[in-house]
TrEMBL record:
TM region(s), chain numbering: 20-41, 53-71, 83-101, 107-130, 142-162, 168-190, 218-239, 259-279, 291-311, 317-337, 349-369, 375-398
Compartmental location: Cell membrane
Keyword list, A-Z: Membrane, Transmembrane, Transmembrane helix, Transport
Name recorded for this polypeptide: MFS transporter
Chief place where the protein resides: membrane
Organism phylogeny: Bacteria, Bacillati, Bacillota, Bacilli, Lactobacillales
Length: 402
């Protein structure tokens, strides 16, 4: 089915402005993903609690995602995409401002939950919109990861600068809030596609859908939900503990330890650009996923077993960011959406619901492991990477034999 020319013209109105607005929200989200982990020591001192308790607070982000993803994903197919983008921004604003008011642990945990809800609302309104205005192609969603990585690159430098000058750590949260306010003004005035336009776009995509059928489709669905968990866990595990691992196990200084996470972000941004180019040239998404997951496993092994060689650790972090955080999760979501082209919101919600389980469980698991040693807490990421690699290999086999 072809989209009517008039409808196509309407959909393209302000497309670039809409896309840029959505991408800027993921710069903010890049801050939100790691801002608690990057300020663990400062927050622990502010609250007079050990790192284990701060890690527990961070797990609240996963709880918020668990609460919200299935709800926001399903409602995004029924209600306005713009509504959920606005909700996500407002929740992140309350989180950023609230965290610098020196809350109690229960209040801080509630704010972390709110950040998780913000994440789910943004995903429900954003991924669906970008896929639909790009006629079912997922390359636009890869750029979301680029802006997330840009935020993840900027924030550690900001945190390290504040620490080195002995300035108040809360300025990192204030900067996040300021960006939200500026972009919120733009969001209120930009137009999103309406329901009639979205219906035509989704019907057109349905005509070209392909993938496993019957029982194999059920198995593929289960595997993709599992990949939603492992792909998110792989990144969260790394970003939460790499700085402390570099300081305590590799004996890096504070600036060098924060810089290794910035290198991860540079790798991620590089991966986004290369993956965007490859997907535009119709390279197989599943072949890319296999290559990326295998590369991430190798990079983690280098960090664990040869990380005291500074240049090698830096290179491994760069490569890991390229492979694990350069759009691999978003590519997995695109594969999932192609299985269910008429239910983008629901599929996005389900996929990231399993990612939210990772957001909740990883801080708890690693918090317990860190009581034994930071090295043990960090090394568990290698197991996650291996499981994710097996999943995408089996998934590729199912698609070949559909």
């Amino acid at each position: 089915m072809e989209i009517a020319p008039g409808s196509q013209t309407t959909v393209n109105i302000n497309k670039w402005r809409l896309s840029l607005t959505l991408y800027l929200n993921y710069l903010i989200h890049g801050f939100g993903i790691i801002i608690l982990a990057q300020n663990m020591t400062a927050l622990g001192n502010s609250w007079n609690v050990p790192l284990k308790t701060v890690s527990f607070v961070i797990s609240g982000i996963g709880v918020g995602r668990l609460i919200a993803y299935l709800i926001t994903g399903s409602l995004a197919d029924l209600l306005s995409r713009k509504l959920f983008v606005v909700i996500g921004m407002l929740c992140y604003l309350v989180f950023a401002v609230g965290m610098v008011m020196n809350p109690s642990i229960p209040v801080a945990y509630g704010l972390a939950i709110l950040a998780g809800i913000a994440n789910s609302a943004l995903d429900a309104g954003t991924y669906t919109t970008l896929v639909e205005i790009n006629h079912g192609k997922g390359d636009g969603t890869i750029l979301l990861k680029g802006f997330m990585s840009l935020g993840e690159f900027i924030l550690p430098i900001l945190v390290a600068t504040l620490a080195n000058h002995e300035w108040w750590f809360g300025w990192s949260f204030i900067v996040m809030a300021a960006i939200i306010v500026l972009n919120f003004i733009n969001v209120l005035t930009v137009r999103f596609p309406n329901h009639a336009e979205l219906k035509q776009l989704n019907q057109a995509v349905s005509q070209t859908s392909h993938g496993p059928r019957g029982f194999k489709k059920v198995v593929a669905t289960i595997l993709l939900l599992g990949y939603g968990y492992t792909s998110m866990a792989l990144m969260i595990w790394f970003t939460q503990w790499i700085t402390l691992f570099a300081q305590q196990q590799l004996h890096f200084g504070e600036t060098a330890a924060h810089f290794i996470l910035s290198l991860y972000s540079i790798g991620s941004i590089t991966g986004v650009i290369i993956l965007f180019i490859l997907l535009n040239r119709a390279v197989s998404e599943l072949k890319l996923l296999i290559a990326l997951n295998l590369t991430a496993v190798v990079a983690l092994a280098i960090l664990l077993f040869a990380g005291r060689i500074v240049w090698l650790a830096n290179l491994a972090s760069l490569i890991f960011g390229f492979a694990a955080a350069g759009g691999a999760m978003q590519t997995g979501l695109t594969v999932f959406m192609k299985l269910f082209p008429s239910h983008h919101g629901m599929i996005t919600g389900a996929f990231y619901f399993f990612g939210s389980i990772a957001s909740f469980t990883v801080p708890l698991i690693t918090g317990l492991l860190s009581a034994q040693s930071i090295a043990l807490a960090f090394s568990g990421d290698l197991i996650v990477g291996l499981v994710g690699t097996v999943i995408v290999i089996v998934l590729a086999g199912l698609h070949r034999t559909k």
